[in-house]
Fold:
Amino acid sequence: MSMFCYQCQEAAKGVGCTIKGVCGKNEDVANLQDLLIYTLKGISQLVLKAEEANVQIPDTSHFIMNGLFVTITNANFDDAAIINQIKTGIALRDEIKAVLSNAGLALEGLHDCATWTPANDEALLEKANAPEVGILATENEDVRSLRELIIYGVKGMAAYAEHAYNLGKSSDEINRFMVKALAATLDDTLTADELVALTLETGKFGVDTMAMLDAANTGTYGNPEITEVNIGVRNNPAILVSGHDLKDFEQLLEQTKGTGVDVYTHGEMLPANYYPAFKKYDNFVGNYGNAWWKQNEEFETFNGPVLFTTNCIVPPKGDQGSRIYTTGASGYPGCKHIVPDENGMKDFTEIIEHAKKLNPPVEIENGTIVGGFAHAQVFALADKVVDAVKTGAIKKFFVMAGCDGRMKSREYYTEFAEQLPQDTVILTAGCAKFRYNKLPLGDIGGIPRVLDAGQCNDSYSLAVIALKLKEIFELNDINELPIAYNIAWYEQKAVIVLLALLYLGVKNIHLGPTLPSFLSPNVAKVLVDTFGIAGIGTVDEDIKLFMA
Ligand code: SF4
Ligand code: SF3
Structure:
């Protein structure tokens, strides 16, 4: 076996990718990502030592956050970039060790990840392939399952924390938790019960992180509002922006102003259309295309350059790579990566000049879609929504947040949305929405039957809405609300969203299209017994079950 990865929903054969990732990640990149996580664990162990001894050390929080983010599915395929990050990590780790030694601390009992040092690049690559570095190094499958569940949750948390960081918001408690969680995965004395408790604590910090990002996004760009988003095109050269980072999006809009170059969103950037601050740019045209996995096809007809601010990247087809740019945690070999200056400002001139030389996008759809139903907008409609529930016009809400993906079995979600009774409303967030946000599902007394809160992190809005309804209806338990959860997952941000919902006490979540490969039978049983987590069945059966 040359690699082992089972962190996403498309893990080969529902077990794990062992030769090459279904995502396109090759064995070198997979193993280097494992080594990067290994390096972060070593740093974490030292950070905890410094904390215990009350010794001041260099700040590691942004490095750890970014390192975790780089390893998320479809974020970064660039082996050279990951090697650099590992080297920087080792240097940072050794700097901390020097500070601790100077403070008179005996550095005993450290894990190999905190002591191992590569003599050269070759040794580094060799280490990446070493069995002690990979996921399978933990032999007990239940312990491995819990450790990886925690790590994937923390990866999702780190991604959201980095977007907030880019907008000037961070939290010492959240940063500290990431360190604690990473170090805990090295601790062989922890029992399964303690790891389960840590999993729930991960969910708690997931809620805090999403709340922090929500405050950063809405504090900077205003509260998302009901918006009709144009999905057609104009006849100007244009740039397509994908990923989740709003700060990057704002900087690109600023720099394209008055250049004659239009800007469109793709995939998870669609919700940028809902923010008041971006509406003032008249070169911001709307959204082009669908979820991430259709990008090869849709980038072909878009014609212009594409900027990835985060995941999900699909390996470019043909010469598409020549007009793909990456920034932040994302990366792809051969694609130009744009780095910020010391003030976080990025120069997008090259992309803008590139766009001017290319043809305008070809129209693949036209008309509009509606979205912008984050918490503030829904609260503004609260009277209407509450009335509709009281009169029985709305019988049930379905939270269908999460991710989309390429598996055929995801057609389930389109059919499920189509076949839901007319007196139900879908609450969505994340790229899962592309399975049903263009269906003519109508409205209930003016309330659209699909309410899109935004990106996957805006699942937080859906939780805030649920908690508000619980308060309005004076219920004791969030599970007494007429809300069912049928969530689609793909990558690790969906893992933190799931853990956050579990922490908030939400029960009976259905998760599909398949349950995570990284859940061992025993760990899956704990989730089923304690939280009522279930997979999906057929559309008919599931609708009957949910409506009963
Ligand atoms: Fe396979 Fe998913 Fe890992 Fe890619 S991220 S290697 S598809 S399990
Ligand atoms: Fe989608 Fe990648 Fe998860 Fe942010 S863009 S939801 S899959």
Observations:
- Residues 19 and 416 are 34 Å apart (CA to CA).
- The chain has a mean pLDDT of 97.
